[in-house]
Amino acid sequence: MNRRFGVILASLAVAGGALSTSSVGMASDVRLPTGTTFTLATRSGAVETRVVRARENGAARPILLIGLHGYGMEASQVATLVHVDPAFGHSYLAPQGFELLPDGSRAWFPIAIEGDAVVIAPAGLARFLDRFEDFVAAARAHAGAAVDQTYIIGYSQGGAAAIALAALRPTMAAGFVSLAGSVLDHVIEGAGAVGGVCPRLFIGHGTRDSLVPTAIMRDRVDRLRQRGLALTYREYAIPHVVSEAERRDVAKWLEDANRCREGMVPSPVGAASESGLGLARTGRGW
Q1: Would you call 72 helix, strand, or coil by DSSP?
Q2: Which of 69, 45, 200 is nearest to 138 (CA)?
Q3: Is the pLDDT of residue 196 over 80?
Q4: What is the number of alpha carbons within 13 Å of residue 276 lying toward its C-beta?
Q5: In the chain, where are the structural domains located?
Q6: What is the fold, at CATH topology level, of the domain defined by 7-261?
Q7: Could you tell me the pLDDT band of residue 76, with boundaries at 50, 70 and 90?
Q8: 3-state secondary structure 188-243
Q9: Are strands 175-179 and 150-155 parallel, antiparallel or unpaired?
Q10: Cα–Cα separations (whole angstroms), residue 133 to 117, 151, 153, 237, 251
């Protein structure tokens, strides 16, 4: 079936308050309305989850998007990160980060600052991977979606998490997208080749991103490719944000990935980035 997977990445909301608990409840109905915050039970424990977009009634194979916020943010702030035309019967869920920070915000795994370096302990990342795998399994059951219709999209630390998932837990979802994320050293070391012909990983990077230097990003993406991980890497002349050109490219990439899994040949993603560097570069980030 040729369903156009029309996806528009909207501006990331940076401001926002704590999750409202007025609509929190135990998950029991995949048709919880858009904007609801509910508690999704997983094998690792309960996870507060926001319904960014509710599933359309009658969808035979609903697409499930899972959005991961950045470090020091929380689930309500990722609500505008991905907008999908509701006519395609998708669900879009945004879980709350598993790590509670002192200021009440959230993260996916702990970090430490040592001089100018951001240090991520392998044990903290491994704990995230295990718990998130449990979350995705519960989210798929909740949404009625199959693995090949599940896409994980992250911004900043959520983007780094998406890359880690693509490299270390690739069978968790059909595809992964990182926006302003980074590639961790121990992720590269553990990455392996992933079979199949459909697009698996999209990495978008800003050449003016002061948190993730471009030269380092290119080197680390190259190293991921050398480990056998097929990916699309694009650069944009932007800081640590998401641009309109990036949104268009991700929309096209997701559409191609979805069509490929329905038996169609994906067409190439547009070749020009905002910086004019095109798409044939590879790299790293924190």
Answers
A1: coil
A2: 45
A3: no
A4: 0
A5: 7-261
A6: Rossmann fold (3.40.50)
A7: confident
A8: HHHCCCCCCCCCCEEEEEECCCCCCCHHHHHHHHHHHHHCCCCCEEEEECCCCCCC
A9: parallel
A10: 28, 13, 14, 34, 25
Is the pTM value of this prediction over 0.70? yes
pLDDT, mean of residues 186-211? 88
Task: Write the CB contacts of 129 (distance below 8 Å, at least 6 apart in sequence).
Answer: 164, 165, 168, 169
- Partners of 92 in the β-ladder: 53, 65
For residue 80 the two structure tokens come to 């505008």
For residue 118, the surrounding DSSP H or E stretch is: strand 117-119
In the structure encoding, which two tokens stand for residue 237, read together? 């002349």
User: Could you tell me the two tokens for 224?
Assistant: 């991921």
Is 10 in contact with 247 (CB distance < 8 Å)? yes
Give me the residue label for tokens 């040949």. 265
List phi, psi (to 5°) of 156. Answer: 60, -120
